[in-house]
Design brief:
The complex is a heterodimer of chains A (426) and B (192). By secondary structure, chain A is mostly beta strands. Chain A has two domains: 2-157, TolB, N-terminal domain (Rossmann fold, 3-Layer(aba) Sandwich), CATH 3.40.50; 166-423, TolB, C-terminal domain (Neuraminidase, 6 Propeller), CATH 2.120.10. Helices cover 11% and strands 40% of the residues of chain A. Chain A has helices at residues 2-10, 53-67, 91-96, 141-157; strands spanning 34-38, 42-43, 70-74, 101-110, 113-122, 127-137, 166-171, 178-183, 190-191, 199-204, 210-215, 222-227, 234-237, 243-248, 254-259, 266-271, 278-279, 287-292, 298-303, 310-315, 322-323, 331-336, 343-349, 352-358, 366-367, 373-379, 385-391, 397-402, 409-410, 418-423. In chain A, β15 (254-259) and β16 form a beta hairpin. The longest helix of chain A has 17 residues, at 141-157. Chain A starts with a helix and ends with a strand. With 192 residues, chain B is α+β, with helices and mostly antiparallel strands. Chain B has a four-stranded mixed sheet with strand order 1-4-2-3. In chain B, α2 (31-43) crosses α6. Chain B has one domain: 2-Layer Sandwich (60s Ribosomal Protein L30, Chain: A). The chains are: A mainly beta (426), B alpha+beta (192). Chains A and B meet through loops of A and α3, α6 and β3 of B.
C-alpha cells in the first residue's frame, strides 16, 4: 500500500494536468482515471418521493463523464453501506468498489418548492471536499444538478465547469431558420426568434444575457441584438448590403462583423450600440467571420484574398495581417479558444467539412472530426469542449466534444436541421 | 414585332421559371465570359447602388417571401407581365458566362423598353456546397456582377439594388449537379 501511494504521487493522472495547486485532493494510482460514484439523492419527504432522484444523479454523472476528468457512474447506495446521515459516510465499501470520489445528496420537493443539498467526498482520504445547498422551484432540479457538477469541476481542477451554460443555434424546426437556445446538454430548447424570416449566426454577449444575430426580417440581412429574457429585437447595424457574422468582443464593448456597404464583405468593428464603424480590412476579397482573441488584441477571420477561403489573423485595430492556415484549400469558421492557445475552424474535405484546431502561430494543426460533415465550432468558456453542427450517420444535430476530439456526443434532441451553434460564456 | 418579342420572352422566362432554368449552360466556356465582364467593369463602378438604399427600405417585408411564390402569384394575376430570366453561374464563380450575358441583355432590353423607371432588386444565390457564410458573400458578388453588367447596358444604376441570400433560398432541392446548377443564380425582382 505504501508503494501504491508513492506511485500515485509520481504519476499524475490526466485530471491533475488542469489542476491549480491545492485543488486536487485525490489522485488515482497509475494512469487510470479517477472514478466517481454518483448516488441518487435521498428524498426527505414523507411519504418518500424518489421520482426525481435518478434524474439528478443522471445529470451529474453525464456532465462528469463528458468532462473527461473522471469516470462517473450513477450508483445506487451500496447495500452493505451503513450510512446514517448525509455527512456520515461508510467509505470502505466505496473504496473496495474502486471509487475515488462520491457524490451524495438529499432533497425535498413539496408544493413545487425544491431544496437540494449535495456533498462531494474523497473516498480515499475519507473526507468532505465540498458541499452545496440549493433552494428553488421544481423546474430548477436539472440546473441545480448541473451547478453541482460545475462545483465538482471547480474542486477537482480549480476552474468552475460549464454545465450551467447554454448553446444558441439555428434550427429549421418551424420551416424557417429561427434562433433557439438550449442547455449545454440539449435540454430545455427554447425558441428566441419567431419572425418567420431567415435568422443566422447567433453570438452571445460575454455576460451570456444577450445575443446578436443576422436576420432578413426587414428585408436586408441586418444585425440585431436581443436579450434572452425579452423578445425585443433591436437593430444594431442596418447598413447597405450584408451585416453578418457578428462577434462580441471579450470585454463586451465592441462587436466585430462583416459589412459589405463598400461593395464587398469587409471586417469592421462597431461599438456595442452599433455606432462608430471602424473598417479593419481593405481588400477587394471577401473578408468575414471575425473572432476575437481572449485578450481582445487580435482578430481571426476568413478571407478569400488568395483565391479560396483561408483563415487570417490581424490586429484588432486592423493591420499586421498574417495567414494562419496553410493546409487545405478551403478553411472557414475560425473561433479563438477562451484560453487563447488554440483556434478551432472547419476545413472542407471531400465536399464536406471537418473540425480542426490550430495554434495561433500556425503550428500543430490537428483534425478532430472524421465522420460526416462538421461545421461552425464554438468553444465552451473553460476551453474544455467544442460544440459544432454535424451531419453524420448517427444523426444530424448539435454535437459536443472534448477539445482533443474525444467524446463526440449529439446533444440536440429534436429532429431536423441544426446550424451555427455557439456556446455561451456564462 | 417588339410586342411579340416581349410576349415571347415572357413565355420563355415563365417556362424557365417553371422548369427551373435552362439545361445546357454548363457547356458554355466560362473563359469567354471573363474578358468582357472585366472590360465592362471599368465603365461603371458599383458606387451608384448606394442611391438605391431608400428603395430597399421602402417595402422590405415583401422580399421575405420565397421568389417562387412571387412568381406563381404574378403568373396567375397577369400573364402579360414581364418576368425576368434568371442568370446562372459556375460553381464558386461570380463572373458572367456567355449565356448569362445573353440573359442579362434580354433583361436589360425588357427593362429599358417597358419599365425604365422600375426599381429592380437583384438577388444573388448559391448552391448548398461550401460554408453558409462564404456563400452569403459569394451570392452578393453574383448579384453585383449582374448589376454591373445591366448598368453597362444602359439600365440606370439608381434603379438597381442587390441582396444576397447565400444558400438560404435554393430554387430547387437536391444534392446533385442538376440541382446545384439551378441554385447558383441571380434572380430579378421588381420592387413595388
Amino acid at each position: 500500500m505504501k508503494i501504491f501511494l508513492l506511485v500515485l504521487l509520481l504519476v499524475v493522472p490526466p485530471a491533475a494536468l488542469y489542476a491549480q495547486s491545492g485543488y486536487i485532493e485525490v489522485t488515482a494510482p497509475g494512469n487510470r482515471q479517477l472514478k466517481l460514484a454518483v448516488v441518487p439523492p435521498r428524498s426527505l419527504d414523507v411519504p418518500v418521493n424518489s421520482e426525481s432522484a435518478k434524474l439528478v444523479s443522471d445529470v451529474i454523472a453525464y456532465d462528469m463523464n463528458m468532462s473527461g476528468v473522471v469516470i462517473a457512474e450513477n450508483r445506487s447506495q451500496l447495500p452493505f453501506a451503513k450510512d446514517i446521515s448525509l455527512a456520515d459516510v461508510d467509505f470502505a465499501p466505496w473504496q473496495s468498489a474502486g471509487f475515488d470520489l462520491l457524490v451524495r445528496g438529499e432533497y425535498s420537493l413539496k408544493d413545487e418548492r425544491l431544496t437540494v443539498e449535495f456533498r462531494l467526498f474523497d473516498v480515499i482520504n475519507r473526507k468532505l471536499i465540498t458541499a452545496k445547498r440549493y433552494l428553488g422551484a421544481a423546474k430548477d432540479l436539472r440546473r441545480f444538478s448541473h451547478s453541482f457538477a460545475d462545483e465538482i469541476m471547480r474542486a477537482m481542477t480549480g476552474e468552475k465547469g460549464v454545465f450551467t451554460t447554454k448553446i444558441a443555434y439555428v434550427s429549421t424546426k418551424t420551416g424557417n431558420k429561427e434562433i433557439y437556445v438550449m442547455d449545454w446538454d440539449g435540454h430545455n430548447p427554447l425558441p428566441l426568434t419567431k419572425n418567420g424570416s431567415i435568422n443566422l449566426n447567433p453570438d452571445f454577449s460575454p455576460d451570456g444575457r444577450e445575443i446578436i444575430f443576422t436576420s432578413y426580417k426587414r428585408g436586408n440581412p441586418d444585425l440585431y441584438r436581443r436579450s434572452l429574457s425579452n423578445t425585443a429585437e433591436v437593430p444594431l447595424s442596418s447598413r447597405k448590403g450584408l451585416n453578418f457574422t457578428g462577434s462580441w468582443s471579450p470585454d463586451g464593448n465592441k462587436i466585430a462583423l462583416a459589412l459589405s456597404k463598400d461593395g464587398d464583405a469587409e471586417i469592421y468593428t462597431l461599438d456595442k450600440d452599433g455606432t462608430h464603424p471602424t473598417r479593419l480590412t481593405i481588400n477587394p476579397a471577401l473578408d468575414f467571420y471575425p473572432s476575437w482573441s481572449p485578450d481582445g488584441k487580435q482578430i481571426v477571420f476568413v478571407s478569400d484574398r488568395l483565391g479560396k477561403p483561408q483563415i487570417f489573423v490581424m490586429n484588432a485595430g486592423g493591420g499586421e495581417v498574417r495567414r494562419l492556415t496553410t493546409a487545405g484549400n478551403y478553411n472557414v469558421n475560425p473561433r479563438w479558444s477562451p484560453k487563447g492557445d488554440r483556434i478551432a475552424y472547419s476545413r472542407m474535405t471531400n465536399g464536406g467539412f471537418n473540425i480542426f484546431t490550430i495554434a495561433p502561430d500556425g503550428t500543430s494543426d490537428t483534425q478532430l472530426t472524421f465522420d460526416g460533415s462538421n461545421e461552425n465550432p464554438s468553444w465552451s468558456a473553460d476551453g474544455r469542449f467544442i460544440c459544432f453542427s454535424s451531419k453524420r450517420g448517427s444523426g444530424a444535430g448539435v454535437y459536443v466534444m472534448r477539445t482533443d476530439g474525444s467524446g463526440q456526443t449529439k446533444v440536440s434532441q429534436g429532429k431536423g436541421m441544426y446550424f451555427q451553434p455557439v456556446w455561451s460564456v456564462h | 414585332m417588339k410586342k411579340s418579342l416581349v410576349t415571347l420572352l415572357a413565355g420563355i422566362s415563365m417556362a424557365a421559371l417553371l422548369s427551373g432554368g435552362c439545361a445546357n449552360k454548363e457547356s458554355v466556356k466560362k473563359e469567354e465570359a471573363v474578358v468582357p465582364a472585366v472590360s465592362t467593369a471599368k465603365v461603371e463602378p458599383a458606387k451608384p447602388v448606394e442611391q438605391a438604399k431608400p428603395v430597399e427600405q421602402a417595402k422590405p417585408v415583401e422580399e421575405v417571401k420565397p421568389a417562387q411564390e412571387d412568381a406563381k402569384i404574378a403568373a396567375k394575376t397577369s400573364a402579360a407581365e414581364i418576368k425576368f430570366e434568371t442568370v446562372y453561374f459556375d460553381f464558386d464563380k461570380s463572373d458572367l458566362r456567355q449565356d448569362a450575358r445573353d440573359v442579362l441583355t434580354k433583361n436589360a432590353e425588357n427593362i429599358l423598353k417597358s419599365m425604365a423607371a422600375a426599381k429592380i432588386k437583384i438577388e444573388g444565390h448559391c448552391d448548398e456546397r461550401g460554408s453558409a457564410e462564404y456563400n452569403m458573400a459569394l451570392g452578393e458578388r453574383r448579384a453585383a456582377s449582374a448589376q454591373k453588367y445591366l448598368t453597362t447596358l444602359g439600365v440606370k444604376a439608381e434603379n438597381l439594388s442587390i441582396i444576397s441570400y447565400g444558400k438560404e433560398k435554393p430554387a430547387v432541392n437536391g444534392s446533385d449537379e442538376a440541382a446545384w446548377a439551378k441554385n447558383r443564380r441571380a434572380e430579378f425582382v421588381v420592387v413595388k
